[in-house]
Design goal:
19% of the residues are buried. The protein is an all-beta fold. Strand 22 and strand 23 form a beta hairpin. The chain starts with 9 loop residues before the first strand and ends in a 5-residue tail after the last strand. It is built from 1 helix and 24 strands. Bound molecules: 2-acetamido-2-deoxy-beta-D-glucopyranose (4 copies). The site of one 2-acetamido-2-deoxy-beta-D-glucopyranose has 3 residues, from strand 10. InterPro entries: ECM_Regulatory_Proteins, FN3_dom, FN3_sf, Ig-like_fold. It comes from Aromia moschata. Keywords: Repeat, Signal. This is Fibronectin type-III domain-containing protein.
Length: 309
C-alpha cells in the first residue's frame, strides 16, 4: 500500500499577482457515519467540514488476524460485499483519498457475515438439570453456525407472578440459583446473530424443586390456665410455594400434636390453641412446619400456663 503514497506539490501562479504561492498537498480526515447495513453493504460519508477535495476511497478488507484479503478503490460512498463466508468476521477500513492523491487515516468497522437465510438457527436442545438446589440450563447450536451467534438471550419467566428476567450470555449454559421452590417457570433460549437475525425461540417448562420451609415464627401468645394460643407466621408464599400441610407442636413428653394446615396464598398468621394443659405448668415446645419437602427446622419455645385463681 505504500506504493500508493506520493506527494504532489501543486504550484499555483496567482493570475495578475507578483508572488509565487506554494500550496501544501491536502491530507484528508476520517470518513464519518461508517456503518454496516443488513444487506452486506458498508456505507460512510465524507464529513461536511472536510477540507480536501475527495476523489475516491480506499477500502481494505482484512481477516481479524490482520491478513488483508482485499483492497478496493471506489468512488461511491458505499461498498456492497458479495460472496462473504458465512460466520466469518472481517475488519473493514475506509480511507479518503484527496484529489492530490493523499490517503487519509482509515476508520475501521467489524463486519460479521451472517448465516444464510436457509440456515437452521434453531437450538438442537435445551436441557434443564438439577444441580443441588440450582438449575443448570444447557443448549447447543449446529457447529456450522456456532461462531456466528454473537450471544444468546435466556428469558426466565415466573409463571406464578408473571415476572420475567432477561439474561444475555455468550456461553451455552447458565446456572439459575434464585428460583422459587415449587414455582412454575418457562425458560426460553434464543441465539442472536446480527441485529436483524435471530434463531427461533426454544421454550421449556420447569417446576422448581421443593425445599423445606423456614421455621415458623411467633407473632403472639395468649396464655390461659389450661390452654395456650400461639399465632404462627409462616414463610411467604412468594418465596416458597411448596404447600405447607401441617404444623407439628411437639411438647414431649406431655403431648405431641399435629395440626393439619390448609395452605393459603396469603399465609396470614395462623392461631393454634393447645388445650387440656395443667395449670401453672411449664411446657417446652419444638414447633415445625411441614411441607412437601419435609419438616422445617424447629422453633423452640417455653410457655407457662396461669395459676388457678
Ligand atoms: C443496502 O441497504 C442500504 C440501507 O439499508 C440501502 O440504501 C441499499 O440500497 C441496499 N443495497 C442493496 C444492494 O440492497
Ligand atoms: C487469517 O485468517 C484467515 C481466515 O480465518 C485464514 O484463511 C488465514 O490463513 C489467516 N492468516 C494468518 C496469517 O493466520
Ligand atoms: C441434553 O438432552 C439431549 C436430548 O435428550 C441429550 O442428547 C444430551 O446428551 C443432553 N445434554 C446434556 C448436556 O445433558
Ligand atoms: C412428634 O410427632 C411428629 C409428627 O408425627 C414426629 O415426627 C416426631 O418424631 C414426634 N416427636 C416425638 C418426640 O416423638
Amino acid at each position: 500500500m505504500t506504493s500508493s503514497f506520493f506527494s504532489l506539490v501543486v504550484v499555483t501562479f496567482i493570475v495578475g499577482g507578483i508572488g509565487l504561492t506554494t500550496q501544501e498537498p491536502c491530507e484528508p480526515g476520517y470518513v464519518t457515519d461508517l456503518e454496516v447495513n443488513d444487506n452486506f453493504t458498508v456505507s460512510w460519508k465524507t464529513p461536511d467540514d472536510e477540507n480536501c477535495q475527495i476523489d475516491h476511497y480506499f477500502v481494505y478488507m482484512s481477516f481479524l488476524n490482520g491478513s488483508i484479503q482485499h483492497t478496493y478503490s471506489v468512488i461511491t460512498e458505499y461498498i456492497h460485499f458479495t460472496h462473504l463466508r458465512s460466520c466469518e468476521a472481517y475488519s473493514i477500513r475506509v480511507h479518503q483519498v484527496s484529489s492530490d492523491n493523499i490517503i487519509g487515516l482509515g476508520l475501521g468497522i467489524l463486519l460479521v457475515a451472517p448465516p444464510p437465510e436457509e440456515a437452521n438457527l434453531g437450538l438442537n436442545f435445551v436441557n434443564v438439570t438439577q444441580v443441588g438446589a440450582n438449575v443448570r440450563l444447557d443448549w447447543s447450536l449446529d457447529d456450522e453456525w456456532r461462531t456466528c451467534a454473537n450471544r444468546y438471550r435466556v428469558v426466565v419467566v415466573n409463571e406464578d407472578s408473571n415476572d420475567a428476567m432477561d439474561i444475555y450470555t455468550q456461553a451455552t449454559s447458565l446456572i439459575l440459583n434464585h428460583l422459587v421452590p415449587c414455582g412454575h417457570y418457562t425458560l426460553t433460549v434464543v441465539a442472536l446473530f446480527t441485529v436483524f437475525q435471530e434463531g427461533p425461540i426454544t421454550a421449556v417448562r420447569h417446576t422448581a424443586i421443593d425445599r423445606i420451609t423456614t421455621a415458623p415464627a411467633v407473632a403472639g401468645i395468649t396464655v390461659e390456665q389450661t390452654s395456650v394460643t400461639i399465632e404462627w407466621v409462616l414463610e411467604e408464599y412468594s418465596s416458597n410455594r411448596c404447600p405447607i400441610n401441617s404444623i407439628v407442636i411437639d411438647g414431649s413428653p406431655s403431648f405431641n400434636l399435629t395440626y393439619p394446615v390448609e395452605d393459603q396464598v396469603n399465609r396470614t398468621p395462623l392461631p393454634l390453641t393447645i388445650s387440656n394443659l395443667n395449670t401453672n405448668s411449664m411446657y417446652y415446645l419444638r414447633v415445625r412446619a411441614d411441607n412437601s419437602a419435609g419438616p422445617s427446622s424447629p422453633t423452640l419455645l417455653a410457655v407457662q400456663t396461669r395459676t388457678a385463681s
